Automatic annotation (TrEMBL):
Enzyme class: oxidoreductase
Organism this protein belongs to: Tupaia chinensis (Chinese tree shrew)
InterPro entries: Flavodoxin_fold, Flavoprotein-like_sf, NAD(P)H_dehydrogenase_qn
Catalytic reaction(s) noted: 1-(beta-D-ribofuranosyl)-1,4-dihydronicotinamide + a quinone + H(+) = beta-nicotinamide D-riboside + a quinol
Keywords of this entry: Cytoplasm, FAD, Flavoprotein, Metal-binding, Oxidoreductase, Phosphoprotein, Zinc
Name the record gives this protein: Ribosyldihydronicotinamide dehydrogenase [quinone]
Amino acid sequence: ILSPPAAGKKVLIVYAHQEPKSFNGSLKKVAVDELKKQGCIVTVSDLYAMDFEPRATRKDITGALSNPEVFNYGVEAYEACKKRNLTSDIIEEQKKVQEADLVIFQFPLYWFSVPAILKGWMDRVLCQGFAFDLPGFYDSGFLKGKLALLSLTTGGTAEMYSKAGVSGDFRYFLWPLQHGALHFCGFQVLSPQISFAPETASEEERKGMVASWAQRLKTIWKEEPIHCTSPWYFGQ
């Protein structure tokens, strides 16, 4: 008997919301349930519950600094990564990423970006030497072969995030996140799951958004990644 394509696949959900009963909490829960049902091994990094440290500081390096005179975080994190001298919370998250076939980021959009705690996760976890090197980025980033997906909620409606809308095309704010961070590290990026304006939607519409996410996850392993080039985001 052929095993289903998802059996044994590892998924990491990096989740950034303060309230378990929130709409983001529902999206996270339905993803865990659906993926487990498929036989996936699902790990959740619940950043607020973990009280994850978002600040990139010299405390992230446990060994001696390569230049104690003038602190350069990027250089020191790179050296510490090579020597396994990063703090345990960073190493634990890197291990989860390393093992994952798919990383889902679940968060509410803050100022066209991720909440600070999730930005801090990216700053600290996706360091040089682990996620990329120079050379060794974009298509040759160290996380190549892994899939990444942004599942996010917005305050504004879909109309607001259209080309003619007041906020511009939603693809514009995806550029720094999907291209500048995820694709830079080598991830193949799947289309985002955007739940527009759940706060102002009806109960029925919210249920529909959760159901469509669960439905999409049923065939997630068959999806083709997007073309991570500027035309996808900004047109020709």
